[in-house]
Design brief:
360 residues, Heat Shock Protein 90, 8 strands, single chain, alpha+beta, six-stranded mixed sheet
């Protein structure tokens, strides 16, 4: 790493090198072309690799121009060279001034870029710290508020209180989900280990976990087999997609987890028979900024899915489901497996037949 002491050492080395070449110019009349140009070339090189104060630049330029100019004029007066050759002196000085101006502009630009980069890193760190602290600090009051609301609902069973507390609980659930997603987004930026898992079994487990939560026609069908993922991250992404599917479907609608593998990779999708996604919204969903609000929510859920897909080197897929509804998932490129696609004790029904699950 370059330091002021390094700059001084380089400047001293150049001064010694320049002095030797100036001496050669004096003692080799008629052959001073090579040492003359070496002085100017070395000056340009050392200046490009160091940061000199303006006083150093001016003093050095005056010293080099004076010494080499006097030597050239002396040799021209002695008839060793033609007077026309002394025109190289002002030309080299002008070239160096132009070069120094461009190097100065580069140094200023780099300084500004470093300053902006440090400011951006500081802003991102403060924003991350704020979100992390706010998310964690909100969990306790949300839990307490929910407990007192449920206690109030139990103690007063009149219809008005039941309806009012139902609204409060619904809003508390929304705030809890937003808090959870904020924490999840923060955790996604950290490094998490991946391991080889049976993705078909993971999808079936996630579907079974969600089945009691909503009155839907739940199913799961997957033929992916073994792959290397972080199951916690993948589950967080699928939870966001399933939650959206539940939001835009009603009792009796279909929600399916579908996994498939081909020659270039694997895909996991949440397919529902709900209201679907307008085609004009799809490009915004695919290219939206993390956390950008959407027409249906905060955008944190899809930001989580994009982060998980990006960590796996994949992308988010959005389309229409069969017979209406939506099809949203992750597409991850992966070479075909060379060994068995699932453990020996795998459940064969996961590969080809849908797993029907009871709904709540």
């Amino acid at each position: 790493m370059r330091t002021p002491s390094t700059d001084r050492i380089l400047a001293a080395v150049w001064a010694l090198f320049a002095a030797v070449n100036v001496a050669l110019m004096w003692f080799l009349p008629g052959q001073e072309t090579v040492p003359f140009h070496l002085v100017w070339i070395s000056l340009a090189l050392v200046y490009g690799f160091t940061t000199w104060p303006l006083s150093w630049i001016v003093a050095t330029l005056v010293a080099v121009t004076t010494t080499t100019g006097v030597i050239l004029a002396h040799h021209a007066a002695a008839g060793e060279i033609r007077w026309e050759e002394t025109a190289e002196e002002p030309l080299m000085a002008v070239i160096f001034i132009v070069m120094a101006w461009h190097v100065h502009r580069r140094h200023v630009l780099l300084h500004q870029m470093r300053r902006l980069g440090e400011a951006e890193r500081d802003r991102a760190h403060r924003q991350e710290l704020l979100v992390r602290l706010a998310s964690h600090e909100l969990r306790t009051p949300l839990t307490i508020a929910r407990g007192y609301t449920e206690l109030l609902r139990t103690a007063h069973d009149d219809p008005s209180t039941v309806d009012d507390t139902a609204v409060v609980l619904d809003e508390l659930d929304k705030a809890t989900r937003i808090t959870h997603r904020l924490v999840t987004l923060m955790q996604l930026e950290q490094q998490h280990p991946v391991r080889r898992v049976d993705l078909d079994a993971e999808l079936a487990r996630i579907a079974r976990r969600w089945a009691p939560t909503a009155d839907r026609d739940w199913s799961c069908r997957s033929a992916i087999g073994l792959t290397r993922v972080n199951p916690e991250r993948l589950e967080a992404a699928l939870d966001c997609l399933i939650e959206n599917a539940v939001k835009f479907t009603g009792p009796g609608d279909r929600i399916a987890l579908v996994g498939r593998r081909d020659a270039t990779g694997w895909t996991v999708e949440v397919v529902d028979s709900g209201s679907g996604i307008p085609p004009d919204v799809v490009p915004e969903l695919l290219a939206g900024r993390p956390g950008r609000p959407t027409a249906t929510g905060t955008g944190l859920g899809l930001a989580t899915v994009r982060a998980v897909a990006g960590a796996l080197g994949g992308r988010v897929t959005v389309g229409a489901g069969p017979g209406g509804g939506a099809r949203v998932g992750l597409r991850v490129p992966e070479p075909p497996p060379t060994g068995p696609t699932r453990p020996e004790a795998a459940r064969p029904e996961l590969a080809e037949s849908p797993v029907r699950l009871a709904s709540g």
